[in-house]
Write a structure and sequence with these properties.
The protein is α/β, with parallel strands linked by helices. It has a domain at about 125-300: P-loop containing nucleotide triphosphate hydrolases (Rossmann fold), CATH 3.40.50.300. About 30% of the residues lie in helices and about 10% in strands. It has helices spanning about 90-95, 135-145, 155-160, 175-200, 220-225, 240-245, 255-265, 285-300; strands at about 125-130, 150-155, 205-210, 230-235, 275-280. It has a 5-stranded parallel sheet, sandwiched between helices. Helix 2 crosses helix 8 and helix 6 (about 240-245) runs antiparallel to helix 7 (about 255-265). The longest helix is centred in the middle third of the chain and has 23 residues, at about 175-200.
């Protein structure tokens, strides 16, 4: 039996770069896989000394062809754990999200040919109820909207104007640029709201004290804000009735008798304008709402020229 002092073993097969790929995977039958002299474990099947008497150099990991590392070899990439998939979104039927059509100018309502006369209680309408303070505009508009057979919204100019709390410009304290600007903002806001409601199938009735001698900022402004399909109707009772109703008001909506008389006189300019006028001096709210339906039936069939 020959010990490890005989003639050296033939050198292992060398690859082109001076190291054997087999050295990357040491196994029981590959010499040079140990970091130092091989321990003596009895007779070795290969005579001669071990091929390496000192620590074997650790070769660098193989790189892709043409790759030149800029510095030390980085560690193997660590793959982050894949996060769990987010829970599935609920169906639109359970979220309450409804796609709303954008608001646009309101066109003139049309009557289907099969109908002998239009039914204002089931037609989607945009109505502007005009009248002086104390004419009953708000009461009639609310009642009319409450008793329609289709969805209907009541948009009050005074309610929207009073959204302004700090800095509210009350015309009763003197008409100025601030009060004028806030009135115009309120009218434009009401117009935006009406267009959005109407675009989604909800009729609207708006009320405002529109003066006939200010067509640009009055009736013309409403036509621009809502559209040509807006149907204006004037509610104009007698002066005595207006004064009596105004006396029942409280807060900043109550005007002086002189102011009420002045406004009522300016409203008389609607006579001869071509707009339908309802004198509700002797009518209660339900009766006035019924007359309003009759007037709207005629307006749909033959829209007023305004």
């Amino acid at each position: 039996m020959q010990h490890a002092v005989g003639s050296p073993l033939p050198p292992p097969h060398q690859s082109g770069d001076g190291w054997s790929p087999a050295a990357q995977h040491p196994g029981p039958h590959h010499p040079g896989a140990h970091q130092g002299p091989a321990p003596h474990q009895g007779p070795t099947p290969h005579p001669g000394p071990a091929p390496h008497l000192g620590p074997a150099p650790v070769p660098p990991p193989p790189q892709a062809p043409g790759f030149t590392p800029p510095g030390p070899v980085p560690p193997a990439p660590h793959h982050a754990p894949v996060p769990p998939a987010p829970p599935a979104l609920p169906t639109p039927e359970t979220t309450g999200h409804v796609q709303l059509p954008p608001g646009g100018p309101v066109a003139m309502p049309s009557t289907p040919p099969a109908m002998a006369s239009p039914d204002p209680t089931t037609t989607t309408l945009a109505v502007l109820l005009i009248g002086p303070a104390g004419a009953g505009k708000t009461s009639v508009a609310k009642y009319w909207a409450d008793h329609r057979r289709v969805p209907t919204a009541h948009i009050s100019l005074d309610d929207v104007r009073e959204w302004v709390r700090s800095g509210f410009a009350d015309p009763q304290s003197g008409w100025n640029d601030n009060s004028e600007a806030q009135y115009r903002l309120a009218r434009r806001t009401c117009g935006f709201a009406a267009r959005n409601f109407l675009a989604n199938g909800i009729s609207c009735i708006l009320d405002d004290a529109v003066f006939p001698d200010r067509p640009v900022v009055g009736l013309g402004g409403w036509k621009r804000h809502v559209g040509p399909g807006l149907l204006p109707v004037v509610l104009l009772p007698g002066l005595e009735i207006v004064l009596e109703r105004n006396a029942e008001r409280t807060g900043n909506r109550r005007l002086t008798d002189e102011e009420v008389a002045r406004i009522h006189g300016r409203m008389a300019g609607w006579y001869g304008s071509g707009l339908p006028i309802i004198d509700n001096s002797q009518l209660d709210v339900p009766q006035t709402a019924q007359v309003l339906n009759d007037v709207l039936t005629r307006s749909i069939a033959s829209p007023p020229n305004w």
